[in-house]
Design brief:
Blueprint (H helix, E strand, L loop, with lengths): L2 H21 L5 H5 L1 H19 L3 H6 L5 H16 L8
Helix pairs in contact: 1-3, 3-5
Length: 91
């Protein structure tokens, strides 16, 4: 695996761990009431998508069980939802 891919994978893990911490003890309704929480989660998903989109083709091919394109598309939808005032874009 390329060193840059290891760094990007670390960014993905860190962002996902942050989402787990941010959502601990929370309810779905908290997203509507807590703008900072919603912003933090969208930002974390954008980090995941950006890092995923830069993973090399070689690493992606070594791990075909990971839905790379779906991860990238989901983060794009999260960012679009934030741009639309918090309404997630439809898949």
């Amino acid at each position: 695996m390329k060193p840059d891919d290891r760094i990007r994978l670390r960014h993905i893990v860190d962002a996902l761990n942050s989402t787990i911490r941010f959502t601990a003890g929370r309810r779905r309704g908290d997203l509507d009431e807590d703008e900072m929480l919603a912003f933090a989660l969208v930002h974390a998903l954008q980090i995941v998508g950006e890092a995923t989109s830069k993973i090399s083709i070689e690493t992606r091919e070594e791990h075909p069980q990971i839905p790379w394109a779906s991860i990238i598309a989901s983060s794009w939808r999260a960012g679009l939802g934030a741009a639309r005032g918090g309404k997630a874009a439809s898949p």
